[in-house]
Amino acid sequence: MDKNITDKIVSLAGLELDNALCVEVGPGPGLLTRSILDSGARNVVAVEKDARFIPTLEQLQEASDGRFSVLLGDMLTIDHSQIIRSGLEQKSNAGGNIKSFDNVHLVGNLPFGVATPMLIQWLKLLSLKSGIFGTSNVSMSLMFQKEVGDRITAGASDSARGRLSVVSQSVCDAFKIYNVPASGFVPRPKVDATVVQLRPLEKPLLKSSLGTLEHVVRFAFMKRRKMLARIFKDWDPQRIALLEECEIDPTLRPQDVPTEKFCQLAYIIEQRDIKLP
Ligand SMILES: C[S@@+](CC[C@H](N)C(=O)[O-])C[C@H]1O[C@@H](n2cnc3c(N)ncnc32)[C@H](O)[C@@H]1O
Q1: Distance separating the N- and C-terminal Cα atoms of the chain
Q2: If we measure between CA atoms, which residue out of 56, 16, 65, 71 comes closest to residue 37?
Q3: Is 115 exposed, middle or buried (CB count within 10 Å of its CB: 0-12, 13-18, 19+)?
Q4: Radius of gyration of the chain (CA)
Q5: d(Cα 160, Cα 151) in Å, to the nearest integer?
Q6: Repeat: present as a keyword of the record (predicted)?
């Protein structure tokens, strides 16, 4: 990517830099990292899985005035306390005046195949306020394949609405901040990309575990063109009562159901330990 593009991404991400930790996931050769550092961020920690990029990133670390450190690791399995510790031990934090971070910004341009499972894991951690998501103010600015970005941000009745929309919006406000055409990358990929920002809802809609909500939406969206009445009848005609209980119109199709209603349904299903097919 061109530095103009990575600068734009960082500026549109609106990172609040006071008492903040920026976590970059998958920095690769460090282009986006440079833009984050140029924006004035004082505590940047990157997690990179591929050891081949580490020497370049270490050079960046040396030139960063103690504002940047890189960890070799897989973001799916790394212990988040290691990331927070690296941020707190940063030289820019000399004197230890920052004991914990008020703002955590997660920024990443991951390979498209990895980005979605990673997002699901982060949403789970966020719902539990665990790891780097234990901080009061968190934002995630993440690059996705455009179609995936459309799904994450789609509201009820939007044609792109799906499982990822409901699961993301049960805990976050999700919106696109920047579209990057395929021509913005070298080598040029086959698809366009979009940067989505997710910020935790002040009052999450999620009432069950995120895992239960995931099961419920997977079940509902398996027959996305059918009415809910049909989907539930095929499962067990008695289960249609669940829709009435949640005041969900049974003539709706899954994509028309607001996130809040799916959350209510998941809550009842979890509370009563109802097994979905
Ligand atoms: C598309 S490249 C990113 C390029 C870079 N952000 C830039 O602006 O030039 C994706 C990077 O994510 C890294 N990556 C993939 N899976 C990862 C994971 N699970 N944890 C950490 N890094 C990962 C890859 O090694 C690769 O360097």
Answers
A1: 44
A2: 65
A3: buried
A4: 20
A5: 5
A6: no
Ligand 1 centroid from CA 76, angstroms: 12
Q: Given ligand 1 and candidates 50, 54, 60, 186, which is best to mutate, with the most ligand atoms within 8 Å of its CB?
A: 50
Ligand 1 centroid distance, CA of 11 (Å): 20
Cα(57) to ligand 1 centroid in Å equals 12
Using one digit for the tens of pLDDT, what is the confidence trace for 203-247? Answer: 999 999 999 999 999 999 999 999 999 999 999 999 999 999 999
Q: Which pair of tokens denotes residue 216?
A: 């419920």
ipTM reported for the complex, 2 dp: 0.95
CA 260 to chain centre: 19
Strand, coil or helix: 191? coil
Question: Is residue 1 annotated as involved in ligand binding?
Answer: yes
Q: Is 267 helix (H, G, I), strand (E, B) or coil?
A: helix
pTM above 0.80, yes or no: yes
232 and 248 in contact (C-beta within 8 Å)?
A: no
Reference 87, options 71, 107, 111; nearest CA is 71
Tokens matching residue 249: 């119109």
> What is the sign, positive or negative, of the torsion defined by CA atoms of 206, 116, 70, 105?
negative
Find out whether 15 and 42 touch, Cβ atoms under 8 Å: no
The pair of three-digit structure tokens given for residue 8, joined into one six-digit string: 């734009």
